[in-house]
Specification:
9 helices, 10 strands
């Protein structure tokens, strides 16, 4: 980590309700360049809703989100421009079924005018190689395993050269034997210095790859700290219960 890390993202007092259910209850967080933040917690506690706010897939009822010191919640902010810089990888891959792997990766950079078709194709080939799928460039999603689809989805998010990557439970829709191949790609990204927030149920991965862990419960961050602090010396009673349950 740098001596003076650059703050990329500031979240201040984020509140969100769906009907009468308050899902986020005043969440605040600072993300520094190079942070790898694992977000853990029981199902339904607001983890996924929280990270969906960070690239404007949800809008909060109250609170502020600053990217590089500027609010991204203003009416004049183009959400597509924010998503170029804060990419997202989903639980269910969300690949376009009518496009093959390389076309899925090329689509956004070409559509948004960031790269020419030739440049986008070169970039897509390079990214497919990086995620170990060079020979699957012309395969459609229906011909790829879940793990392969998720690796294409990661390559697609990387094609925009984002400053931050968000992962919403990237392995939970995968068969157990495919989880490792996806976690390896995320680990490689972490080693390359990519700033990432990862909602995950993989406790060993959270422990070994992240530099910070957030424990979410009942719509807020109940405890945060280094993996060592959180996993070896949890203070919050709910976190203690949660970690005990994940060991069985």
């Amino acid at each position: 980590m740098n001596a003076n890390p650059e703050t990329l993202l500031e979240v201040k007092n984020l509140v969100k309700s769906f009907g009468k259910l308050q899902v986020l209850k005043g969440v605040s967080l600072n993300v520094q360049k190079g942070d790898i933040i694992a977000i853990i917690g029981p199902s339904g506690c607001g983890k996924s809703t929280f990270i969906r706010h960070l690239n404007l897939l949800e809008k909060p009822d109250q609170g502020e989100i600053l990217f590089k010191g500027k609010s991204i919640l203003g009416k004049d902010v183009e959400s597509s421009r924010i998503r170029e810089q804060i990419g997202m990888v989903f639980q269910q891959f969300n690949l376009f079924k009518n496009l093959n792997a390389i076309e899925n990766i090329m689509l956004a950079p070409v559509t948004l005018g960031k790269l020419s078709k030739k440049e986008a194709e070169e970039k897509a080939i390079e990214l497919l190689e990086r995620v170990g799928l060079s020979e699957y460039a012309k395969h459609y999603p229906s011909k790829l395993s879940g793990g392969q689809q998720q690796r294409v989805a990661i390559a697609r998010a990387m094609a925009m050269n984002p400053e931050i990557l968000l992962f919403d439970e990237p392995t939970s829709a995968l068969d157990p034997e495919m989880v490792g191949e996806v976690l390896k790609i995320i680990r490689d990204l972490a080693n390359s210095g990519m700033t990432m927030l990862i909602v995950t149920h993989e406790m060993n991965f959270a422990r070994n790859v992240s530099n910070r862990v957030l424990f979410f419960s009942e719509g807020n961050i109940r405890e945060e700290g280094s993996p060592k602090e959180l996993f070896e010396n949890p203070k919050d009673e709910r976190l203690k219960d949660f970690l005990a349950a994940t060991k069985h």
